Amino acid sequence: MTTTLDIRRPSPHVAEVYLNRPEVRNAFNDGVIAELTDTFRTLGAEPGLRAIVLGGHGKAFCAGADLTWMRAMADYSWEQNRADATKLAEMLWTIWSCPLPVVGRVHGDCYAGGVGLAAVCDVLVAAEGVQFCLSEARLGLLPATIGPYVVRALGEQASRRYFTTAERFSAGEAQRLGFVHECVVADALDAKVSEIVATLVANGPAAVRACKQLVKDMVHRPIDAALREDSARRIADIRASAEGKEGVQSFLDKRAPAWKVD
């Protein structure tokens, strides 16, 4: 039973996962890391689920690592530090590799490891006024574990700056850089998240999963004969599937597809 997360099911096809430690600005520790890993692993394996929202309660989305946890780590050996970091790496990988689309709802400030959580989301919606900060260098550290995801989501050139300067940057700037997809006033945040979730749920469930995997498999690959063959195989597979046939036939018949929910 989770103690640091608030998990909600607004519909059979949607799950909402909220970091629920507002007293410490949703900073994570080993308990949060374990619960997020288990939760996303379980939700990702649920056949009827189509989308997951990741958010937080309180003033901040996530302030990074919990101070009490950091104090304990100060006395860790190298082996203990590596084991600890490996668990964080596994959590980030589990969310990033979740077969379902993950919509990040960033209502408040997002620092350090919190930026990593934002980076593993597929669609990121942030409220105006939110501040992002990769603050590790201020503490003599570096954002290594979250780095692979942040560099992909934020971009190499922007990452060079914000990793090394540890400057804050706004949600508007994050949107300009392509890290945030939608930047809206705080009062419109839930409406925008709901709009995106509704769009995801309206699409073919298998197609959405396949589209998410397609991006991961094709990014940075050379457009060679192997990739062309792979792309042809994938479209043939889904055209021949029951969902693909239903989608095309419902379009031709000018009716809603069988997977459409009210």
Q: Quick gist of this model?
A:
Strand 2, helix 1 and strand 3 form a beta-alpha-beta unit. The chain has eleven helices and nine strands.
Feature tags:
2 domains, 6-stranded mixed β-sheet, 3-stranded mixed β-sheet, 11 helices, 9 strands, 48% helix, 15% strand
Describe the structure.
The protein has helices at residues 30-44, 67-73, 78-96, 113-119, 147-154, 156-165, 171-176, 189-202, 205-218, 225-239, 242-253, and strands at 5-11, 14-19, 51-56, 102-106, 110-111, 123-127, 131-133, 168-170, 182-184. The chain is of the alpha/beta class. It has a six-stranded mixed beta sheet, sandwiched between helices. Strands 5-7-8 form a three-stranded mixed beta sheet. The two termini are 31 Å apart.
Oligomeric composition of the shown chains = single chain
**Largest sheet at a glance?**
6 strands, mixed
Look at the helices and sheets and give the structural class: alpha/beta
**C-alpha-based Rg, rounded:** 19 Å
